[in-house]
Amino acid sequence: MAKPPQRRIPRRAVHGVLFLDKPTGISSNNALQKARWLLNAAKGGHTGTLDPMATGLLPLTFGEATKFSQTLLDADKAYEATVLLGVTTTTADAEGEVLARSPVDVTDAALAEAIDRLRGDIEQVPPMYSALKHHGKALYEYAREGVEIPREPRRVTIHRFDLLSRDGDSLVVRVECSKGTYVRTLASDLGAFLGCGAHLTALRRTRIGPFDLNGSISLAELEALPAEDREGRLASVDALLGHLPQLAFDAVQTRSFTHGQSAAGIEGVVGAMYRAYDGTRFLGVGTLSEGGLLVPTRLMATGNQ
């Protein structure tokens, strides 16, 4: 006798930010879907991807917080990485096929000089194995087909590039960089400067904007919690917006703003973005225009404020 179909548990309206410590071996989207399943959340998003090989900080947004997930896309990031000298790969990391092996005869002084050349404002050619689009198609799709697409160099800033340790041909480095930086390209460029080639064998994101791994949680830790306790690990919906100045609204301003109209009587910097509150209740964000008017940019949905 056939078993009756199991009823699917309806997804819940879950709102907030999860600071996830992503494991290696899964994509950022797979990590999001796993967390979403554990929270039984109706809606979720992430704030920028990590390669499947990479681990570390991946802020995930749920419910109303997804409206503010773009906030961290322009943020600086910090990583700890392991670089192997003497081997180049198709992807500039350990997931690619080996292209060449070269002897390594690199002094500590030569290494220090090459690292110094890669600090500050530099130009990087984005790797073919990346999610950047060409005519609506990701570059990695062309790469898998054996098609090479010309890429223009992009200017990025390497705020810090420090050697933490060296064990033969293996280096552990710390990188603090601007948005758009590919650490595996940095490793490849380092190998090119040294004349022996190199690729990335491990990568861990330790910081994004003002957030670090303190207070983050792994998928295994989240799964180990009782289901009713998991939502308690979420930060507030406005957790990613601490860099924006805060405004306290009166009843009239609140009424206008929450109905999608400009709130009047605001003093501040024209063109700047502000987060608005009615007491402790977060209302959304707006941009200040001429005449002291705060124009709503993103609003909390009615009932979730």
UniProtKB/TrEMBL annotation:
<feature type="domain" description="tRNA pseudouridylate synthase B C-terminal">
    <location>
        <begin position="184"/>
        <end position="227"/>
    </location>
</feature>
<dbReference type="InterPro" id="IPR015947">
    <property type="entry name" value="PUA-like_sf"/>
</dbReference>
<protein>
    <recommendedName>
        <fullName>tRNA pseudouridine synthase B</fullName>
        <ecNumber>5.4.99.25</ecNumber>
    </recommendedName>
</protein>
<dbReference type="InterPro" id="IPR032819">
    <property type="entry name" value="TruB_C"/>
</dbReference>
<keyword id="KW-0413">Isomerase</keyword>
<dbReference type="Pfam" id="PF09157">
    <property type="entry name" value="TruB-C_2"/>
</dbReference>
<feature type="active site" description="Nucleophile">
    <location>
        <position position="51"/>
    </location>
</feature>
<comment type="similarity">
    <text>Belongs to the pseudouridine synthase TruB family. Type 1 subfamily.</text>
</comment>
<feature type="domain" description="tRNA pseudouridine synthase II TruB subfamily 1 C-terminal">
    <location>
        <begin position="245"/>
        <end position="300"/>
    </location>
</feature>
<feature type="domain" description="Pseudouridine synthase II N-terminal">
    <location>
        <begin position="36"/>
        <end position="183"/>
    </location>
</feature>
<dbReference type="InterPro" id="IPR015240">
    <property type="entry name" value="tRNA_sdUridine_synth_fam1_C"/>
</dbReference>
<dbReference type="InterPro" id="IPR014780">
    <property type="entry name" value="tRNA_psdUridine_synth_TruB"/>
</dbReference>
<dbReference type="Pfam" id="PF01509">
    <property type="entry name" value="TruB_N"/>
</dbReference>
<comment type="function">
    <text>Responsible for synthesis of pseudouridine from uracil-55 in the psi GC loop of transfer RNAs.</text>
</comment>
<dbReference type="InterPro" id="IPR002501">
    <property type="entry name" value="PsdUridine_synth_N"/>
</dbReference>
<dbReference type="Pfam" id="PF16198">
    <property type="entry name" value="TruB_C_2"/>
</dbReference>
<dbReference type="InterPro" id="IPR020103">
    <property type="entry name" value="PsdUridine_synth_cat_dom_sf"/>
</dbReference>
<dbReference type="InterPro" id="IPR036974">
    <property type="entry name" value="PUA_sf"/>
</dbReference>
<keyword id="KW-0819">tRNA processing</keyword>
